[in-house]
Amino acid sequence: MTDLPGGRVLPRVFFDRPSTAVAPELLGCVLVHSLAEGVVAAEIVEVEAYMGRIDPPSHAFRGQTARNEVMFGEPGHAYVYFTYGMHFCVNLVCERPGEAAAVLLRAGRVVDGVGLAAARRSGASGGNGSRRLAQLASGPARLCQALGIDRAQNGADVCDPGGALRVLVPDGFSGLPADRIATGPRVGVSTGAEVPWRFWIAGNPAVSAYRAHVPRRRTGDRLRAPAGNNMNVTLTRRGGSIQR
Hints:
This protein has about 240 residues and is α+β, with helices and mostly antiparallel strands. Helix content is about 15%, strand content about 25%. The protein contains five helices and eleven strands. The strands form two sheets. Strands 1, 2, 3, 4, 5, 6, 7, 8 and 9 form a nine-stranded antiparallel sheet that branches. Strands 10-11 form a two-stranded antiparallel ribbon.
């Protein structure tokens, strides 16, 4: 593929399918975000499929809320959520309205607007060094930061050719061959970890590191000093678990 954000916008019918079919076919497509400060584009190199109300790790598993309302709407829209009190993540809604399936965009390779992406990432790469460049959008939070995606893009129609946030099929690109697409468990999920619904471009340096789920103590869990410690101290853990 060319290192330019050229090509045609993916049509809505592309997203009107199960997320497990859409996810691997997004690999090699380009996510473009145009703002007044400039354009940043990234080749999509890693994704995860979530199957809505039948999939426990999905935000839609327990039904519709104000937060996940976009997931229950028309396919081809961006569902952007805030996590860990500091990061945004972007998903693309799939299937017909009400199904609430989506694909999480986990990582990208910046192919246009490197300088702006680096500035947004606090100088994570000055444009020099292939390893630093690969890390600019490696991970869902880094991807959003590099492309300037936040809650303002929640609900954006990525199928609109005139939209600020859109997904392009590069000129001459007809999808990756099967032997270039790797699959495995989704990152950090406590249930549904057995299904290989994470897809990535094999060998691509911008793919994020895999991390299995690590159980977290719930807010209010109490931590006591080890036996034999003379200090009569009880601590309360602060913080809580984050829904994937």
